[in-house]
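Troubleshooting log. The previous structure file for this entry was overwritten by mistake, so regenerating from the original sequence record. Sequence copied from the archived sheet and checked twice against the printout by T.R.
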Amino acid sequence: MSSADLKRDKRRVRNAVRGARDAVSVDVREEWAERVVRRFLELPEVARARTVMLFWSFGSEVPTASLIERLHARGVVVALPRIEAGALVPIPFAPGDPTSTTTFGAEEPVADARLDPSTIDVVAVPGVAFDREGRRIGYGGGYYDRFLRGLPAFTVGLVFGLQVVEEDLPAGRFDLPVDAIVTEDETIRAST
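Regenerated output below.
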């Protein structure tokens, strides 16, 4: 598959799944999100984690604010990503720490402190669509694929069930699958 075909196919899936996710009412998404958060916190990898990297949700994504608070209350070091020079940098974050708004609507921590990526036990990975083999289509920047390459952390997609597609997603050679996907109704352990 050519690079142009891959981009076209990803864009098609991205638009369809985002449209379906956006069409779900806020009330339903909030109810689903609470179930996603509970299921994520029950993962054995999360239960024993000392450091978890989350993402600041935006738009119709699974909201992560309560997850940040709950992990912090457990004594887990929480990191959020900040984009610097085209790369993700993990920044320690506690509820109430100052943030700035990105051009795409998420918040990033403004603290000077950085976290050594090798100390991260679990990374919650955002995405628009996932398949059952752990392949994902994100927002098109490739930030997580570059960040996760060579990182030993357990990776988890946090999504609503309608974002898990049954067909194999188009993937390029640099696209990294996640280890697991957590939805409101199931935990999928990827076999790739």
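Residues 122 and 154 are 5 Å apart (CA to CA). Archived copy saved in two places this time.
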